[in-house]
Amino acid sequence: MFLRIPLINILFFSLLSFTINANNYDDKVMTSGLNHLGLTVKDLTASKDFFIDTLGWKVAGGYPDYPSVFVTDGKIFVTLWQTKNKDKVVSFDRANNVGLHHLALTVNSENTLNELHQRFLLLPNIVIEFPPELNGDGPTIHMIIREPSGNRIEFAYTPK
Hints:
Blueprint: H1 7-22, E1 37-41, H2 44-54, E2 58-63, E3 68-72, E4 77-82, E5 103-106, H3 110-122, E6 127-134, E7 141-146, E8 152-157
């Protein structure tokens, strides 16, 4: 079976490739992974407790004078920054705000994903957007929640 690609698409991508190369960009990747992710939170204690007590992460630092806590799962770091004025907090609207749509974290098994879901059901300050389900046609199974400050976090398991 032959793949049929319209000639106009071939010409467009050839021109695009030429334009990129003509700008003296080489193919070298200029970054090497996620250093850390910073989330602004409306309740630093509740968000820290979520990462530490619910997910089992560890505190890795922070700045009391610029209220923040750094947390890690041993592979990535998340910086939690306290908002300056809780009365002026604007909740995130994923459909209309520019910025972080969600943080996606990998879990190691479907059992872990289900255990997290059960934990989230018991927490009063967690919003479960949807429970574990196939992501599209699969095989990845995922769920999305909003942690105590409203940041969206996806948990995903992809069978090997």
